[in-house]
Design goal:
Subcellular location: Cell membrane
Largest sheet: 6 strands, mixed
Protein name: Simple sugar transport system ATP-binding protein
Keywords: ATP-binding, Cell membrane, Membrane, Nucleotide-binding, Repeat, Sugar transport, Translocase, Transport
GO molecular function, one term: ATP binding
Number of strands: 22
Strand content: 25-35%
Strand order of the largest sheet: 6-7-8-3-9-10
Structural class: alpha/beta
Organism: Nonomuraea jiangxiensis
Radius of gyration: 23 Å
Number of domains: 3
CATH class of the largest domain: Alpha Beta
């Protein structure tokens, strides 16, 4: 099958998201669409999938012009899509989500859930996803929800598969497994469009690369192109791909976790008897496969977990048992792993989101009244300082690209007096230009003497940022090792192997 996009143009008011884009994808190839957040990649694929209607241009399959009024038309034409932002219903089970739009039925028209469950099990076993068909999606971690999206697309046996940032929430082993899946799909003749901003992934699996910047195709590149060349094409300038930081100058111990445990709604220990200490002026990275207690650990520190045992002290002050507002007021900055759910209010403006943590007192509120001029001045300064690409302070954050949304969250948390920064998956779903900026700001925070905890499933990020690394497995700390520890050692620890004794 041959897919052609000719002159696709999509506008949102005065914003041209896609500007006369041409693209050709053939059966049995992996065509990578590379570009920054906000470059127009996802918009283009949403046009292909029938979620948006193009203002100009046409879609052809094997030379025949297609008219897609919605995703069902695209699926019927043999196009499947794994979305960057989950298209799942939290109160439905895995099997119910996978069968949506392609429901198997019994005689009489009743839903055949047994067949749906069997389909989930078959695909999960074939590709190593380890999914429970009867699990509620709302109870699953972000990483497991992403696997549901992939299984949902694979269940339709599409001839063209679009993967929109599918590895944004996957660990390195899960990413490697997905790369193997994509190769097998390619070998059986599936045409794959792979949207990503991760250069290693591009070079590993792409047969062809098309680079998009500011809504336009700016060129094609070979998978043999260097990272610096690809990054420069994406951003339009030279990009620093390594984190430059001086050796840490750690001070006194600031944060201490003693015998910390978190118990879930079923009475199970999801974090078990954790002891950790973080000093001023150092970055402690917490590494591990998604779903091994990292999320619950950070939420316990922030007062978001209802059942916590043990002690959490910051500068000698006990935080366990405090409300999230009290923890934030104690000087804790928090960048959550799921920014769309926990980091901002999509319907609020940039200015409104930037003052959420302090919407009840000075300088933004006096005598119960919002200080609109102060809020506006603060927002303008933050947009400039954090290079937030937007039309103005009144832009709704939900309309920004992922990288710019993350910068809004970061600007809010770093623009106050901090005694601790907790950053969970700080560059998830963010392009290379924004990654460079976010890493620089995290290091600057460390150099200002603030203790920093970074939680990341990206080993490259862990190794680049960390002064020390704590690895979690099944809710426990396997060990704490220096930041320059070899990747293979970290990989074994993430699988539960204890490290050799290392002086810390």
């Amino acid at each position: 099958m041959k897919l052609e996009l000719r002159g696709i143009t999509k506008r949102f008011g005065s914003l041209t998201a896609n500007d006369h884009i041409d693209l050709v994808v053939r059966s049995g190839e992996i065509h990578c669409l590379l570009g920054e957040n906000g470059a127009g990649k996802s918009t283009l694929m949403n046009v292909l999938y029938g979620l948006y209607q193009a203002d100009e241009g046409e879609i052809l399959l094997d030379g025949v012009v297609q008219r897609f009024s919605g995703p069902r038309d695209a699926m019927n034409a043999g196009i499947g899509m794994v979305h960057q932002h989950f298209m799942l219903i939290p109160v439905f089970t895995v099997a119910e989500n996978v069968m949506l739009g392609n429901e198997p039925t019994r005689a009489g028209g009743t839903l055949d859930l047994d067949t749906a469950r069997a389909r989930v099990r078959e695909i999960s076993e074939r590709f190593g996803f380890d999914l429970d068909p009867d699990a509620l999606v709302g109870d699953l971690s972000v990483g497991v929800q992403q696997r549901v999206e992939i299984v949902k697309a694979l269940s339709r046996d599409a001839r063209i598969l679009v993967f929109d940032e599918p590895t944004a929430v996957l660990t390195p082993p899960e990413t490697d497994a997905l790369m193997a899946i994509m190769r097998r799909l390619k070998e059986r003749g599936t045409a794959i469009v792979f949207i990503t901003h991760k250069l290693r992934e591009v070079r590993e699996v792409a047969d062809r690369i098309t680079v998009v910047r500011l809504g336009k195709v700016v060129g094609e590149a070979s998978p043999t192109a260097g990272n610096a060349e690809l990054a420069s094409m994406m951003v339009g300038r030279a990009v620093e791909l390594t984190v430059r930081k001086a050796p840490a100058q750690p001070g006194d111990t600031a944060l201490v976790l003693r015998d910390l445990s978190v118990i879930d709604a079923h009475g199970q220990y999801v974090v078990s008897h954790v002891d950790l200490a973080v000093r001023r002026g150092e970055i402690l990275a917490i590494a591990g496969v998604q779903g091994n207690g990292q999320t619950e650990l950070t939420e316990a520190i922030l007062g978001l977990q209802p059942r916590v045992e043990g002690s959490i002290t910051l500068d000698g002050v006990e935080l366990a048992g405090r409300t999230p507002r009290q923890v934030l007021d104690a000087g804790v900055g928090f960048v959550p792993e799921d920014r769309a759910r926990d980091g901002f209010v999509a319907e609020f403006t940039i200015a409104e989101n930037l003052m959420l943590d302090r919407s009840y007192g000075a300088p933004f509120v006096r005598a119960g009244a919002l200080q609109l001029d102060t809020i506006e001045t603060f927002a303008r300064a933050a947009i400039t300082e954090f290079d937030i690409r937007a039309q103005g302070t009144g832009t709704n954050v939900g309309r920004l690209s992922g990288g710019n949304q993350q910068k809004v969250v970061l600007a809010r948390e770093l623009n106050r007096e901090l005694r601790l920064l907790v950053a969970a998956q700080p560059t998830r779903g963010v392009d290379v230009g924004s990654i460079e900026f976010i890493h620089q700001r995290i290091v600057r925070t460390r150099d200002a003497g603030v203790p920093v905890i970074v939680v990341s499933t990206e080993l490259d990020e862990v190794v680049a940022l960390a002064d020390r690394i704590a690895v979690m497995y099944r809710g426990e700390i396997v060990g704490v090792v220096p930041g320059d520890s070899p990747r293979d050692v970290l990989g074994l620890m993430m699988a539960g192997a204890a490290p050799q004794a290392v002086a810390i």
